[in-house]
Amino acid sequence: MREDLLHYIWKYRKIPLKGLVTVNNRKVEILEVGQHNLLAGPDFSNAKIRIDDQLWAGNVEIHVKSSDWYVHGHERDTNYSSVILHVVWEEDTAVFRSNERVIPTLELKQYIPENLLGNYKQLLDTKKKRFVNCEREMDQIDSFALVNWLDRLYFERLEDKSNWVWQFLKDSKNDWEKLLFVLLLRNFGSKINQDAFSSLGRALDYSVLRKVQNDPMKMESLLLGLAGLLEDDLVAATYYLTLQKEYRYLRSKFSLQDKVVQRPEFFKLRPANFPTIRLSQLANLYGRYPNLFSTVIATSSLADLYSIFSISASTYWDTHYTFGKESDRRTKKLTKTFVDLLIINTILPLKLCFAKYRGEEIYDEIATLVSQLKKESNTITRNFEDIGIKVGNAMESQALLQLYNVYCSRNRCLECAVGSIILDRNT
To answer: Is residue 341 a part of any domain in this protein?
Structure first.
C-alpha cells in the first residue's frame, strides 16, 4: 500500500461516504473531503465530517499506518492540532492530541473496493518491464477522454516552458526585445550549446546589439567574437580576418567582457549545427528584422512565421562550416524542422507570456499554430505509436513528451487521466 493511493481514494471519494465507523466504533459521515494540500501541513484542509452526532470542520491527515503520525513527528507540530480525522490503511497504534485525547481514526482497508486495489496492483506491477505502466490498456481508453487529457498536457508543458521565460524577463528588466534575443540564442544553441549561447546573451549588453544589428557582418563579428571563435591568429581567411578586426574594434569601443562567456562546443554536433553556422544565421535574422519581437508578436499565421525565419548564414558559410576549411557549396538555411522547434520552444511560450502580461487571451491562437506543426519524431513518441497511440501533430507529440517525462517515468499514474480510468474499471 502506498500513501498516494490513499490520497487518490479519499480525494475522489472511492469509498462510501456514509455507513463508516472509526476503529472505536464511532459513526462517520463524510460531507466534504476538503482541498488537497500539496504543501506542508495536513493532507486535506477544510473538510466537513460528521462523527456520531457532531459536525466537525477541519483537516484530515492520511497515512498508511497510524504510527506514521509519530514517525513524521506530527505530535510536535501545531499545524496538525486541527486534524479532525486520521485516515489510515491500517491502525497499528492509537494517536493522541496534545491534550491526550484520541484522534478519531478511520481504517480504510475494509472499505476500499477489491477491484480498485487489483487494478492498481496490476498497473504498477514492477516485475513486468514496460515502456509505460499502462501500455497494454492505453489504446483501449476512450478517444474523447484521451484527446482532452493530451490537450491539457500540452498547455501544462507550455506553462512549464513559460516559467523560465518569466525568469529571463525579470533578468532583462522587462525588455521584451532582449528577452526574445536571449531565448533565441538559447534555442539556436540546441541541447549541446544552449548553456554556452545563454552565457553569451547574459554577457552582451543589448544596447550594443541594437547599435550593430543593421549590419549583419558587424553583428556576426560581435556574436562570434564574444563566443571566443575569433581568437585563432593562424587562420588566414580574408573573411575571418575581417570579422576578427571588426570584433576587436567593437570589444574596445564597448568594453566587452568576453572572458565570462562559455566557449561553445563542436564535438558531437552535425556540421549544420556548428556554432559558427548558428550564430551567423542569428546575426542575419536580426539584420533583416531589427524589431523582431514586435514582428513575431504581430504574426498569427504559421506561413508568416516560416517567412520570418526563412534566413541563411552569410555567403562565406556556403562553402564552409568552420573558418579556413572549405566544404561543398550549400546554402546554410534554417531547416523547417529547426524552425518548428524554435516556434515550439521560443515563440509560443513567448506569445503566451506576453498575452498574460497584457491580460489577453491567446490559447486558441496557440492551439491553432501548434496543431499545424509537424509531429516530432523521437524515442518517446515512437514508443507511444508502437503501443497504438496515434500522433498527428506537434501539439500531440509535445503532450506525449509531457505525459512520459512528468507522469509515466515517475509512476504518477494516480495523477494521470489514463491511470484514473484504468483504476476505476469494474469498481
So the answer is: no
pLDDT of residue 424: 86
The answer as to whether 365 is a domain residue is no
- Over the chain (427 residues), the average pLDDT of each successive run of 10 is 93 93 96 94 96 96 96 91 95 88 94 91 77 87 93 97 91 91 95 95 91 94 96 90 96 92 95 98 96 96 97 97 95 97 97 96 96 96 94 98 96 93 81
Domain, as residue range, for 132: 114-171+371-427
* Residue 339 domain-assigned (yes or no): no
Instruction: Mark whether 235 and 90 lie in a shared domain.
Output: no
Q: Could you tell me if residue 25 is left (phi over 0), alpha (psi between -120 and 50 degrees) or otherwise beta?
A: left
Residue 221 and residue 134 in one domain: no
Of 127, 221, 186, 232, the C-alpha closest to 342 is: 186
Same domain flag for 97 and 10:
yes
Number of domains in the chain: 3
Residues 207 and 136 grouped into a single domain: no
Same-domain check for residues 143 and 231? no
Same domain, 118 and 108: no
Tell me, yes or no, whether 30 lies in a domain: yes
| pLDDT score, position 125 | 77
The pLDDT value given to residue 427:
62
